[in-house]
Amino acid sequence: xxxxxxxxxxxxxxxxxxxxxxxxxxxxxxxxxxxxxxxxxxxxxxxxxxxxxxxxxxxxxxxxxxxxxxxxxxxxxxxxxxxxxxxxxxxxxxxxxxxxxxxxxxxxxxxxxxxxxxxxxxxxxxxxxxxxxxxxxxxxxxxxxxxxxxxxxxxxxxxxxxxxxxxxxxxxxxxxxxxxxxxxxxxxxxxxxxxxxxxxxxxxxxxxxxxxxxxxxxxxxxxxxxxxxxxxxxxxxxxxxxxxxxxxxxxxxxxxxxxxx
Length: 261
Description:
Rossmann fold; 8 helices
């Protein structure tokens, strides 16, 4: 892993105590996503698997959705999901342009996103140079039954698949037909023992993409690491991992989860 990092920058600009965690295959930094990506060498990454802010906070606050009754750590109240659309667009473009530089040729990106923002992410990623592959669906088999007597229960999220420099990349389907949707339950309690994150993804979901779109010892990154699910799955699957998370509480949770593997 160290060969993929600018060690001089890391040692002089990131303290060696609570702001980072390292082991033989993983590097986790309590750092902004762009600052973290700058530490990586160009064309060193095989897969970016990430779940950035959907930027739905203002949209939900402006509707009659009963947000005042939502759980305490709901993303609407998080403070990182309520940018103006124009500011979010610029941030996503900066993120994807830098990710493009760090990905190896034919490297892949999977971005989870609200269905209403899929078109925007495709536009931004293509502007950054990516080849758009497809949009798929994660179906939650046990969604929160919120407003079940008023409307259809929200049980899906989109994932969007891009490749750098060409229409094909790693795809370990072993000759099997793979659909563009995956079904799992919500994140189980056993994966939240070190802390909760409002948008935490289950390990089973992340493992699906890690195994199909990467090989053992490949470098996987998650610039919006949250509670560290991608880090945990990468380690369990024999991949190398680099991730950043700006929130210190979620970062500590991610470090504890990786240490526990």
